[in-house]
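Researcher: Next entry in the queue.
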Amino acid sequence: MKLTATLLARIGDWSKKYANLPDRYINRVTEKVYWRTPRGKPQYLPRTIQRKNLYFSIHRPWTQGYAMDNLPHQRQKLVHIEPIKQWSFFRGDRVEVLAGADKGKQGIVKDIIQERNWIIVEGLNTKLECIGKSKTFPGIYSQVEQPLLVTCQVQLVDPGDLASTPVEWRYTEEGEHVRVSSRTGRIIPIPPSSAETIDYKSPDVYIEQSKDTIEKEVLKITFEAKLKTFEMDIMDAMGIKEDRVPQKYYWY
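Model: Structure for this entry, 252 residues:
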C-alpha cells in the first residue's frame, strides 16, 4: 500500500507533462473509487472503496488502455519498483542501450513512464506486433518500441564525446541544479523538447487558440472573499441596515 501511494504521488511528474492535463483530472481517473453497499446494510447506504493495488504499464492513467489494465475485480501481479530520488532522463535526451538486441546503439528518448522507471527510445528495443488479424485478413505488422529500465538498461550520452556515462546532479556557482557526467565532469543540459506537450512545442512561442480562455479573462478577479456571512453579504448588496439588537447570551 505504501508503494502504491508513492507511485500515485509521482504521477504529477515528467510522466504526465506531455499530456498537458490538469492534476485534478489525472488524480480522479487514477483513484478507481467503487461504490458498494456494505453486507447486511440497506441498499441506500453505499460506501466508497478505493482500489490500492493499481497496475501501471506503458498506458497513461488517462487512457483507455490503463482502464483495461485495471478493470474491476481484476488483479495484476505486484511489481516491485526501485525508488529514484532524482529523475535524470528527459524527453529528447540521447541515450545508449546497454542490454538486449540493440545493445550499444544510441537513440532519442521518446516517452517517459516514471511509475515503472521506464523510458521508450525511438526506433530501438522494438517488438513485432500484428494488428487486425482474422481468418480472411493476414493483419498489419508493425514495429512497436518497448520500454527500457533506466536503472540498468540505458545510460545518458555525454554530448562532448558521444559516449555513455553515469550522471549525478550538482549545483553550479550560480546555484543552478544541473546534470553532470560522472566520467568527464561535463554538464549535460536538459533538452528544450522536454517542455514540449501535445498543445505546443515550446511554452514561449505558444499562440492562443480559439478554444482557449484568453489570458486577460483568466487573470480577471471575479470573486473577492470577505469576512461576512451569506446573510450579511446579501444585506450589504441590497442596502439593508441591521437595526435589531442581539439578545445577550453567555457561553458558560
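Model: The CA atoms of residues 10 and 115 lie 7 Å apart.
Researcher: Noted, moving on.
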